[in-house]
Amino acid sequence: MAELFSSTPYAALTARERIWAAIRERRTVTVREVADRCDVKADAVRVYFTGLVAAGILDVIQRGTGGKHSVYTLKRDLGVNAPRVGKDGTLLPDSARSRLWRAMPIFGIFTARDLAVSTTLPGSPVSRAEALDYCRWLARAGYLRDLGEEKFRFVPARNTGIKAPQIVRVTQVYDPNIDQLVARGPFTGRDDE
Fold first, then answer.
1. What would be the CATH architecture of the domain defined by 96-184?
2. How far apart are CA 133 and CA 128, in angstroms?
3. Nearest-angstrom CA–CA distance, 143 and 135
4. How far apart are CA 160 and CA 175, in angstroms?
5. CA distance 143 to 165
6. Contact 93/58 with Cβ under 8 angstroms?
7. Which of 92, 122, 128, 157 has its Cα between 20 and 30 A from that of 32?
8. Which helix (H) or strand (E) is 175 found in, with range?
9. Cis bond before residue 105 (omega within 30° of 0)
10. pLDDT beyond 50 at 10
11. pLDDT digits over 83-130, tens only?
12. How confident is the model at residue 72 (pLDDT cuts 50, 70, 90)?
């Protein structure tokens, strides 16, 4: 497992990212191989494989029978980022926070409302309140400067990578790009404004 994840902190990868990395590396895999290699439960791998097969990303090249495991092969390599798919194969949009995070350096200076409007997708809206809450957390962690009146400036030196910093247990900010907690609560102030 060490060679597979040597260029990225292991803790910074989600289960699906580890699964996807193993699929891309091996090209032809079984659920059991990937589960063992990635330290993920076989059921979680199986659910993800079901979605990838339905989306046409993986193919079943040998059905498992008599105690043997099904064998899958990578049909469409969509790049380093793990595809977000539902069980039915529907490609899912990136999370709201991922979209917010990617938009921030593009805008530089922005309001929570402008950020919410620009990152809303059909069927996956982002509210002003959600954008404002995330911006306030990132400002507390030093990723943004709070300019007042729901306006923020992105701090270019804090652009640590493509993955959105995560609010952990609602009182911490975790940046998966550097595998580090960058701010801890409790914080004062109102989250319902």
1. Orthogonal Bundle (1.10)
2. 9
3. 9
4. 8
5. 9
6. no
7. 92
8. strand 172-175
9. no
10. no
11. 999 889 988 888 899 999 999 999 999 999 999 999 998 888 999 999
12. very high
Domain locations in the chain?
A: 10-74, 96-184
Do 10-74 and 96-184 show the same overall fold?
yes
The whole-model pTM stands at 0.63
Cβ distance 72 to 29 under 8 Å?
yes
Let me know: does 155 contact 4? Beta carbons within 8 Å: no
Q: Are the C-beta atoms of 146 and 152 separated by less than 8 Å?
A: yes
Per-residue model confidence (pLDDT) at position 62: 86
Instruction: Flag whether pLDDT at 140 surpasses 90.
Output: yes
Give the CA-trace dihedral at 78, 84, 86, 89, to 10 degrees.
-10
- Residue 25 has which token pair? 């590396």
Q: Give the three-class secondary structure for 58.
A: strand
Render the burial of 121-132: b for 16+ CB within 10 Å, e for the rest. eeeeebeeebbb
Share in percent of the chain as helix, strand, coil (round to 5): 35, 20, 40
Report how far residue 136's alpha carbon sits from residue 50's, in angstroms, rounded to the nearest whole number. 38
- Cα(144)–Cα(122) distance, rounded to whole angstroms? 27
Q: 2.60.40.3080, 1.10.10.10, 1.10.1040.10, 3.40.120.10: which CATH number matches 10-74?
A: 1.10.10.10
